[in-house]
Design goal:
Number of helices: 3
Structural class: alpha+beta
Largest sheet: 4 strands, mixed
Number of strands: 4
Length: 94
């Protein structure tokens, strides 16, 4: 799986990149036909501190697009939550 990680208003550090690759890379085990993945990490200025960090994951598999988005106050919590959402979507897709 080719994984593209994009940051908007967020600096992508090596630790953050490795964490995303480790978590999103596990999705390949559930659906081996995934050809491309895009992860977009962004930080928004909102009144609510709980919705600042947004993580969007888009996966392509044999012409099918699976997408999930999650918002929270911590970027690592957002990554964990969006991976859980993607696992549920993959289970439904299969």
């Amino acid at each position: 799986m080719e994984l593209n990680i994009v940051g908007r208003n967020v600096e992508i550090t090596d630790a953050l990149r490795k964490y995303v690759q480790k978590k999103v890379g596990k999705l390949d085990r559930y659906l081996p036909t995934i050809t491309e993945g895009k992860v977009e990490l962004s930080k928004h200025t909102t009144k609510s501190a709980n919705d600042r960090h947004v993580v969007q994951v888009t996966l392509r598999s044999n012409g099918t697009i699976l997408r999930a988005e999650e918002r929270s106050g911590d970027i690592f919590a957002s990554i964990d939550a969006v991976v859980d959402k993607m696992q549920r979507q993959i289970d439904r897709y299969k």
